[in-house]
Amino acid sequence: MDATYDDDIIRPTAAWGAVLSMALCVAMLIASEFMPVSLLTPMAEGLHATEGQTGQAISISGLFAVAASMMITTLAGTLNRKWVMVAMTAFMLFSLMLVAAAPNFAVLMIGRALLGICIGGFWALATAVIMRLVPAQDVPRALALMYGGQAIAAAFAAPIGSYLGGILGWRAVFWALTPVVAINLVWHVVALPSLPARQKQDFRTMFALLKRPYFRRGLAACMLSWGSAFTMFTYLRPFLEKVTGVDVTTLSVLLLLLGCSGFIGTWAASRFLKGNLAPFLKLPALVMGGATVGLLLLGFSVVAAALFMAIWGAMNTMFSVIWMTWMSQNADDAPEAAGSLMVAAIQASILLGAVVGGLLLDSFSIQATFIGSIVLAVLAFVLIGNGQRMLKPKAA
């Protein structure tokens, strides 16, 4: 049942089961997309590539996610959004199987490209779908619940992946994800209500959004913030191994701490993100950039690294809810088009972060990669200011 208010039909029952199904899909997407972070070293060794090259497995998924996010609402046309989401989950399942069985680096990249299509398609529609599953006043809460899947993935995927990768090999980790994604696929079919396309989207709607100065500024700030985060996060394992000097067990514990801290961010998002969002927009760049500075200066200490990773992890989950809530409030007249642009911007930032971070790592040092992340965070903070210029002008 569509749980919002359509043009002339009142559907007051929120489809929370469908929201939970979306949350599981988020968890699996995050786990699938960023699992190479926790397995970067063994994957590089197994595929006879450098760590910087293997980091591009994240870049390639980002590249295809950008393309998919820009095209999905146009290509999907008038297709029922329920079945589009089901198809995206099926792509994720096939991608995991390809990656797990990859005999060489080329096949790995093909599998990651397919995952990118899933990422772009899912995220472009996700917020618009959530806006139809619950009443308008419950959208921030539903988004926080959906991004709870991100916290779960961050809490358990990376540390378990790192630990199991050390015991069973990195391929076994990707195979282990496939049955969960298969269950999620069935859950989508059962729980998601029929979601007929309300109107056919095209690129003109996106261009119209980009003509709005507040939306352009918000999109640029969002890109800088995400670029900063993933320039650092993609290469966190090499930093912890080379600078902090951790072994696989300690690495797994630190990644578990980072992930579990995400539950604090999810709770804070559902508790505090109400009313005026302007003061919250600069928090991700400020807090996560500050944590990266702390790691750069004090990361030789395991205790200090644990502290700053916990701070980073808590803000990481709140990060997504802040910006997607901003989108739902400031582009509520074109949520699918806005979702496409947001996802394209975010994935482009992740892609560039992984590419630039990899180049800095291979050409200079891991410290150079972290410095690049800090520079992007500073630029985001300066652009956002007090956040008011990112908000839709109030009607007179």
UniProtKB/TrEMBL annotation:
Assigned keywords, A-Z: Cell membrane, Membrane, Transmembrane, Transmembrane helix
TM annotation in the entry: 12-35, 55-76, 83-103, 109-130, 142-160, 172-193, 214-236, 248-268, 280-300, 306-326, 338-360, 366-384
One family name in Pfam for this protein: MFS_1
Membrane topology note: Multi-pass membrane protein
Sequence ranges assigned to domain Major facilitator superfamily (MFS) profile in this UniProt record: 1-392
Primary location class: membrane
Entry protein name: MFS transporter
